[in-house]
Automatic annotation (TrEMBL):
SUPFAM superfamilies cross-referenced by the UniProt entry: ClpP/crotonase (SSF52096)
Organism superkingdom: Bacteria
Coiled coil: none
Pfam families the record matches: NfeD1b_N
Matches recorded under InterPro entries: ClpP/crotonase-like_dom_sf, Membrane_assoc_protease, NfeD1b_N
Domain NfeD1b N-terminal residue range list: 44-177
Organism: candidate division WOR-3 bacterium
Protein name stated in the entry: Nodulation protein NfeD
Amino acid sequence: MLRVMKLYRTLLVFLAIVLVPALGFGTSKYVVLEFEGAIGPVSDRYISNGIDKAEDIGADFILLKLDTPGGLMESMRKIVKKIMASEIPVNGYVYPVGARAASAGAFIMLSTHVAAMSPGTNMGAAHPVAMGEKQPDSVMMGKLENDAVAFIISIAEARGRNAEWAERAVRESISSSANESLELGLIDYVASSPEELLEMLDGHEVEMEEGEIVLETAEAEE
């Protein structure tokens, strides 16, 4: 009986050694979403479905690489709502060098749980632009502008970012470089590469709806 118990304990130890690496115990998992181009229904579906997938597979966080000149306000609003309601942190990253988060892209970046930019990128110029052949009159444009201002301020305040800059980005179409954005309190990091960003993110505290979590990204696996 004693021999059987020893063999049983040995088997349990063996299974633990084999299964722990297989289960990825102690290693964070993340999903990368990359979007380049104009914001529209396609990008809305891509980002929304990506967030759903990341939540379904139990990922710890999302890395959203963004390079956009802007696009449809309605699609942008859907993306922002999805990010704000995400069960896991969405880390926005304007990347690579030369990329931008302009117009609708600025709203999206401000809504991410953690925001970062690569050197040589910019964000802003968020004044609404009328689409289509029929242009709205000045009264309607004023309404669109005020609506956009209220929305971007609410996003900035929710994420603890610079609401004054956010308003000016809409009303005056101002734009800022990566380093300026960091100094102005619009983003959290300036990182030259995704690898460098993951190192910077390690230990970052993120406020989620259910409470504060600490990102473990140094050895995270995609």
